[in-house]
Amino acid sequence: MKRILLAALLFAGIAASAGTTPNEKVLKAFKSTFVNAEKVVWHDFDDQYQANFWQNSINVRVKYDDDGNLLETIRYYFEKDLPPIILSKLKKKYPSRTVFGVTELTTQDEVNYYISMKDDKNWYTVKSDAVGNMEQTDKYKRAEPRD
């Protein structure tokens, strides 16, 4: 019974924070920047609003302050959406690896790409800045069966 009550309270808390509507400044800034946003869900966190949505088949998460200033953008996508300069340098530096997915983090100061890659034995994370300076940040042994 305690588990059911705990689960119900947890669900109620999540539901209460999801689907909120931001203030007019935030909504105006969002609509002018992300014209083609689909399936938008808003979350209210103390002094920030977060929108999760899809735009052009890319999963996007953005954060705004109360004044409608865009603080951070996180985009999740695949190799085909990487900027050509990054993709070119990535293929040259890691020719035997396959790109699995990309997380792009943009703040007011910088843009970074966290690129998940794999080969026959390992998973890797490669971090790149906007001009293609790259470093491998993680390496894990693959656990799935090999083909």
Spans of 5+ residues with little confidence (pLDDT < 50)?
A: 1-17
Tell me the distance between the termini.
46 Å
Classification by helices and strands: alpha+beta
Question: Tell me about the biggest sheet?
Answer: 8 strands, antiparallel
Q: What is the helix content?
A: 10-25%
Q: β content, as a range?
A: 35-45%
User: Looking across the biggest beta sheet, what order are the strands in?
Assistant: 1-2-3-4-5-6-7-8
Count every helix, treating DSSP H or I runs of 4 or more residues as helices: 3
Radius of gyration: 19 Å
Write down the overall mean pLDDT.
88
Subunit arrangement of the protein: single chain
Order of helices and strands: HHEEEEHEEEE
In total, how many beta strands?
8
Shape: elongated
Characterize the structure shown.
The chain is of the alpha+beta class. The chain is 24% helix and 45% strand. It is built from 3 helices and 8 strands. The protein has helices spanning 2-17, 24-33, 84-93; strands at residues 38-45, 48-55, 58-65, 70-77, 98-107, 111-118, 122-129, 134-141. It has an 8-stranded antiparallel sheet with strand order 1-2-3-4-5-6-7-8, covered by helices on one side. The model is unreliable at 1-17 (pLDDT under 50).
List keywords for this structure.
elongated; 147 residues; eight-stranded antiparallel beta sheet; alpha+beta; 3 helices; 45% strand; disordered N terminus
